[in-house]
Amino acid sequence: MAILTSDLPDAGIKRLVRSWPAIWGCALVAVFGLYLLRDEFPSAVTFRADTVIPFSDGMTMLMVWLKANISWLTRSITDILGVPLDFALGLFAKNLKFGAGANAVIFPRLSWLGVCIAAFLAGHAFGGRRLAALVGGCFLYIALFGKWQSAMLTLALIAIAVPACIVTGVVIGIWAWRNPKVDRVLVSPVLDLMQTIPTFAYLIPMLLLFGNSPVSAMIATAIFATPPMVRATMLGLSRVPSDLGDFGDMAGCTPRQKLWQVLLPSARPTLMVGVNQVIMLSLNMVIIASMIGAGGLGYDVLLALRALKVGEAMEAGLAIVALAIALDRLSQAMATSGQAKKSGDLASRPFYRRHIHLTLAIAALVVTTLGSLYIPALAAIPKDMTLTTAPLWKDALNWVTVNLFDVIEAFRVSLILYVLNPVRAICEGFPWLGAVALVGLAGYQLGGSRLALIVGGLTAFCAFAGLWEKTMATVYLCGISVVLSCLIGIPIGLMAARSDRVEKIVTPIIDTLQVLPSFCFIIPVVMLFRVGDVTAMIATVSFAIVPAIRYTNHGIRQVPPTLIEAALVSGCTRRQILWRVQLPVALPEIMLGVSQTILMALAMIIICAMIGTRDLGQEVFIALSKADSGRGIVAGLAIAFIGIVADRLFGAMAARRRERVH
Amino acid sequence: MNTIADIGGLAAPLASAAQPRPVKMSCRKVWKLFGPDATEFLETRDGIASVDDIAKANLVGAVRNVNFDIHEGEIFIIMGLSGSGKSTLVRCLSRLIDPTFGTIEFEGKDLLKVSDAELIEMRRHRMGMVFQNFALLPHLNVLENIAFPLAVQGVDKATRTARAREMIELVSLRGREHFYPRELSGGQQQRVGIARSLATKPDIWFLDEPFSALDPLIRREMQDELIRLQSVLNKTIIFITHDFDEAIRLADRVAIMKDGQVIQIGRPEELVLNPATDYVAEFTRDVPRSKVVSARRLMRPATGADYGGTVAPDARVATFSADIVRVGKPFAVVDAAGQILGEVTPRSVVALLAGIPEEGSVHGYPDL
Questions:
Q1: Dihedral of CA A505/A507/A510/A512: which sign?
Q2: Which ranges carry the ABC transporter domain (chain B) (predicted)?
Q3: Partners of B104 in the beta sheet?
Q4: What's the pLDDT score for residue A338?
Q5: Which of A77, A114, A290, B274 could disulfide-link to A299, CB 3.0 to 4.6 Å?
């Protein structure tokens, strides 16, 4: 490999490029040889335990030192953040308590009926009757199915985390936009890392620094959900037409006036897309953060899953789905309603006429909440009004187990025997030295020695940290899931691209799949396939299939119509157009979709640790339960590095294809 | 002023109608170069550099050695095709970008030396600008958009709303005060842009291709609107366009730019009749002479004959050609004081319309 990284004269490089297949052939043979000779050179195959660099010990020491030395800081942060959080929790879920002891004044939490009405009105304000019915219906569903308390705990956390994320995101976004150097050196790489580190890994340092409490859940949520806001701010500001900036200057704006009164309002549509993403990511993370004390719906799912009460888990999961759909549709409608703002002389009307929905919502909340002091049915939804579907799910499951057990079991076992286990064996026996070399070779071919060093180095880290087998276990499960997602997703995307009717059916389904927190995907699969690798794989595929479908559809559809016409005029059949024109032109886009699929699959595989996989996710999960910060963070980094390696390689490949196509 | 000698190395004969108005803005040796150490490059040469020098120093010239004076109350049009540097030049004049070299004086004050605070103050009260793509704020309605420059200054709401309503009257947008920009047509949007730029009562008014994004009919309507506004307001206007017809329709004087240089400055008539280079001639070739040539240019000494009517010396031939041909008698050219300066014959008008050079006119037009 040394010859590849050294500087060669041009002719030499050209000769090498021409013989890439030969190089790959040699490399593969060499790696296979290494595998055959594993008894002679065991240290090239499995990393020797005594040569492992103790990253995790160092990390643990660092965390312990941090804990010992900045506990005053973390404690005060906890206290400060605790105030608004307690208020929100009291307002939505528990009751508000002012004062202490016997003199405490208790203000009741918002009445469920009032919140449902307010949700209905918000839907009506931003999206008309249909949205009102949808949003109001979702909240009513949560109330009627007895998930109110948990759902409101979750909502309270989101209500505090989202504004914090938006403010931080906008501020950092502005800072990075103003200083391109800061962006390049600091912000972009950190954002990349923040978004590829699995959600679980965030929880560990939070747990250590801030304890098992809603505050640490909120901080983890804020860290996880801020990056899209930063990106949206930067994108939005850079997309404001330069004329508008010039106008701001010519109107005599000070730099501050220009930013706040001209640029940011003009960037509003992009900013609102960021807000929607922040809300959805917050929801996702709040669910996962139930493991470190967030409580709420996620905790319900977690408890039910641990006890294998599938019915209850399903019900809590559906409540999450209802909350997710309500929040997503509402925030999307808010994003677009700004553009649809109707003209009219509103300023001269009184406040309640101008904000009729807001006034009504406040009135409904106040009346029902005050009423709940006297009418208990308004305070908490009466037991006999609530419904439960848990027995139904249980019966359904029983029926399935009794009647379809053989089919499902046969499917499961054959999948394990003929697909999963062989691949697993190959992956786990894969020599680490060979993997580093192959990944580095791919990096060199796609992006030169710099990329080769990055991807090779990140791969080597996994080995040097002593996590090689677990890394390969992750790669195996993730790889199979990605291949399956692509095999299913890309054809669906193609069908959607070639038929408007299919697209109309597919779009709402993938839209919904995309807003669901990753947790929810596990539940129905566990019902059918119990715990294990098959379940993890199926849940991952259903989660990660979305970008494969979406990008394929989008890529094919954005092929310029003139190209298609040109192909038609040259006498191509539909099939020929697909294979010779549409697919080659859309390939970069499809590859981006695959790279997204890999990242999503990775995120999901990690969460599947809860149902007993044996990979890096499990490592993080164990570290979480033992509060072993070093071990968890290093495993988290290893996962992030897998993601970064895949992302960089696919990104480079897509970029090269794009250069050739355009 | 009478002549501007040696503009970018090209002498342009100028016989401007004597209008000794004070100079509002003047540029001397204004350069905008892109590339490393551009300022140093020009300073060592004191603002004189050839195309080769620039290329050799690895620089790109967007604006090269521009010199002109703009007088109070005139419409000064900078005309050039895309990439000629006209937009860059106007951004230098308004200091949206800083020139690499040269001086720009605004009412005798060096614009390049004022502090940021002074510049903001100047822009708030002295300058207005209209943009090609309107640059209206999408989140504000018409009234708020027009009042925005005043809001930025901290003018109280009642005053600025009243002023904005005045402006709405001026550009005939009454009834649309509460519309949002996206609800307006392009022409209406640009009316808002014009009203907004005038709300602060600027002394100097920059219009950067204000009508280029509009379709031809609306463009014409807006040009008429601008002529009407100017007759009321009498602002100093710097107007950018790539449309030569628009330039000769509106301009008191036109500066033609090519490759960052001003290659000729003059009244439309002079550009048409005495193009300094083939490039200018190419532009003017299809311009109907009658729309450019003035009565003064066509007149001969008065013979005291029986006049069929009178015309002002600056009236363009197209404005009276139909009348004079119909009447069939010479018209007297009469200045504002009522004094007869000379006469224009139907024959000379017909000759001009037909494109035949006529002998004996006071100012020949040899290039016709």
A1: negative
A2: 42-284
A3: B27
A4: 60
A5: A290
pLDDT one-digit tens code per residue, A37-92: 777 767 666 666 677 777 778 878 887 887 788 878 888 888 888 888 888 888 88
Total tally of structural domains belonging to chain A: 2
- A420 and A555 both lie in a single domain: yes
Domain made up of B292-354: CATH architecture: Alpha-Beta Complex (3.90)
HEC assignment per residue over A443-466: HHHHHHHHHHHHHHHHHHHHHHCC
Which residues in chain A have Cβ-Cβ distances shorter than 8 Å to B178? Answer: 343-346
A556 and A572, same domain (yes or no) = yes
Express the helix, strand and coil content of chain A in percent, nearest 5 each: 85, 0, 15
- Are B182 and A339 a contacting pair at CB < 8 A? yes
Find all residues with CB under 8 Å of A363, minimum gap 6, and list them.
none
Q: Which residues of B touch A340 (CB under 8 A)?
A: none
A584 reaches B (C-beta below 8 A):
no
Domain match, A541 and A630 both: yes
| A424 in any annotated domain | yes
Residues 6+ apart with CB under 8 A from A340: none
Q: Which of A131, A87, A132, A85 is nearest to A107 (CA)?
A: A87
CA A601 to centroid of chain Cα atoms: 10
Asked, for residue A218, whether it belongs to a domain, the answer is: no
Sequence-ordered alpha helix ranges (H) in chain B: 38-45, 51-56, 86-93, 116-125, 142-153, 157-170, 186-198, 216-233, 244-250, 268-273, 278-284, 295-298, 317-327, 346-354
Question: How are beta strands B253-258 and B261-266 bridged, if at all?
Answer: antiparallel
The answer on A542 and A457 residing in a single domain is: no
Q: Nearest Cα to A660, choosing from A588, A595, A590?
A: A588
Supply the mean pLDDT for chain A. 82
Distance between B185 CA and the closest CA of chain A, angstroms: 14
- Quote the minimal CA–CA distance from B180 to chain A in Å: 6
Distance from CA of B26 to the nearest CA of A (A): 19
DSSP one-letter code for A577: I
Mutate one of A244, A247, A260, A345 to test the B interface: name it (highest B CB count within 10 A): A247
> A573 and A444, same structural domain?
no
Question: Phi and psi at residue B332, in whole multiples of 5°?
Answer: -85, 140
CA A446 to chain centre: 27
Domain assignment present for A450: yes
Measured CA to CA, the distance from residue A595 to residue A608 in angstroms comes to: 20
pTM beyond 0.95? no
**Residues in chain B closer than 8 A to A254 (CB atoms):** 120
Q: Are both A615 and A490 inside the same structural domain?
A: yes
pLDDT of residue A591: 86
For the cut 70, the answer to whether the pLDDT of residue A456 exceeds it is yes
Q: Looking at the structure, do residues A593 and A453 belong to the same domain, yes or no? A: no
A659 and A511, same domain (yes or no): yes
Is the pLDDT at A247 greater than 70? The verdict is yes
**With a CB-CB cutoff of 8 Å, which residues 311-340 of chain A face chain B?**
338-339
From the centroid of its chain, how far is CA A441? 30
d(CA A53, CA A50): 8
| DSSP classification of residue A384 | G
Residue-range definition of the domain harbouring residue A30: 7-36+431-464
Residue type, position A459, single letter: T
- Give pLDDT, residue A345: 57
Neighbouring CB atoms inside 10 A of B216's CB total 10
Between chain A and chain B, how many beta carbons pairs sit less than 8 Å apart? 73
Residues of B in contact with A243 (CB under 8 A): 131-135
Higher pLDDT, B28 or A106: B28
Residue A99 confidence (pLDDT):
65
